[in-house]
């Protein structure tokens, strides 16, 4: 992780990027100190050198120097310091993998729950996509600390990212992340179903005679406008979304936030029922032709 204009093993200061959630067991005490200083692990995360947890591990092992001096845990630094990373840390980081899974319905994203298996159970050699050209060889050690960077509901399918790399997780699910996620959503419409109220609550009635073909022709334009902007969930106004008809029975959603079951709940507020939901893109990475139930590595040249 070096800057091409800097001496080997050094990374010069760069503008801060989005903040990451504080890992479990780590507090934010004194993350920002007097005179504009920052905790070293926070500064390393801002520079994209490592996650905070990873940075602390490297510091503990003596793999980090600040202005030529071995760093100490919890030290405060100015933004313009020169940070040196040992080759051992770089080698460790280079071994970290990110995996793209085409998750089927019935699997959960993270830990097993209610008898349902997690998506990581698919990450086995026999399920690797035959057309995966990434130059990685599978090893069971890659499953250690391989965690989902975001969720996909048990009754949804499509692109799920599992990663060992804290930098990737921070980019996708950091507290200030604004990564676009694209979904194809098959719907049916009940014209008699209650509309969203000013408080964002749905007046529910029975699903009598829902329209399942050519939904586009009967779905009011003002309700499509509400899906794009104007709805609230959990007492909070939703960010603007891009919502358009992909075909007469299917909508395309592009979101930059990810509340629990957000698309299904948005659709309920305007009288739509989701009967199929598939995530096809995260940032610049597409699901593409990855078969259902199979996985591939994120190639080194691919960026979210």
From TrEMBL:
This is Dual-specificity RNA pseudouridine synthase RluF. Residues 7-24 have a biased composition (Low complexity). Its EC number is 5.4.99.21. It holds the Pfam family PseudoU_synth_2. InterPro entries: PsdUridine_synth_cat_dom_sf, PsdUridine_synth_RsuA/RluA, RsuA_PseudoU_synthase, S4_RNA-bd, S4_RNA-bd_sf. Residues 1-35 are annotated as: Disordered. Keywords: Isomerase, RNA-binding. It catalyses: uridine(35) in tRNA(Tyr) = pseudouridine(35) in tRNA(Tyr); uridine(2604) in 23S rRNA = pseudouridine(2604) in 23S rRNA. GO terms for biological process: enzyme-directed rRNA pseudouridine synthesis. Gene3D superfamilies: Pseudouridine synthase, RNA-binding S4 domain. The keyword Isomerase applies. PROSITE patterns: S4. Residues 38-105 form the RNA-binding S4 domain. CDD domains: S4. It comes from the Bacteria. One of its GO terms (molecular function) is 23S rRNA pseudouridine(2604) synthase activity.
